Amino acid sequence: MVDFLDELEANVPALRRYARALTRNIDRADDLVQDCLERAISRRGLFRPRGPLRPWLFTMLTNLYRNTLRAERRRGETIDVEALPDLGTPAPQPGYLALGELARAIETLPLDQKEALLLVTLEGLAYGEAADILQVPLGTLMSRLGRARATLRQMTGTAHEPHLRTVK
Question: I need a labelling partner for 18 at 20 to 30 A (CA). Which of 25, 56, 64, 156 fits?
Fold first, then answer.
C-alpha cells in the first residue's frame, strides 16, 4: 500500500503545472501548491481512500484558487511591474507570439471554462475525472470545454487548434 505522504509527493509536479497554468505566475502558483499541500496534510484524516489521492488534491487546489480570486476581487487588482513587457523589445519568434496570444485568450475565459480546459488539455485528465474534480456533471464539463474551445478559436482566428484537443 502506498503511503499517504509518498502519494502526496508524487502529485506535486502535476499540482504545480496546473497551478501555474491557472495563475500564470510562478510565485503565486508555488504558494497555491504549498497551501494545498499544507491543507492536505492537516486534513489527512478527512481523506477516505476510495480511489487515488490525485482528484482530492486537484479539488482542493481548485477550491483554494477560487477562494484566492474572491479575496483578490475584494482587495482590488495588483499589477506586477516586473511582468510588464518591455515595449522596445520585439518578440523573439512568431511561435512565441502565437503562444502569448493563446495564453492571453485562455486568461480571458470564464473561470469555469478555464478550469475545465486546463484539467483536460494540460493535465490530460479523463472527462469524468475532471468533472468529479470540478464537482459538475459530465455533460456540464463537456459543454464548458466546447464553449472554451469555440471562444479560443474565435479569439485566435484559428480553424483548428490540435494542441487544445484531447481524445478520451
Answer: 156
Distance CA 93, CA 80 (A): 24
Give the other-Cβ count within 10 Å of 55's Cβ: 16
Q: Which residues, 6 or more positions from 86, have their beta carbon under 8 angstroms from its beta carbon?
A: none
Question: What residue segments make up the domains of the chain, in order of their start?
Answer: 1-84, 92-168
Looking at domain 1-84, its CATH class is mainly alpha
**How far is the C-alpha of 166 from the C-alpha of 116, rounded, in Å?**
12
Q: What pTM did the predictor assign?
A: 0.64
Find the farthest-apart pair of alpha carbons in the chain and give their distance in angstroms, rounded: 56
Q: Model confidence at 163, in pLDDT bands (50, 70, 90)?
A: low
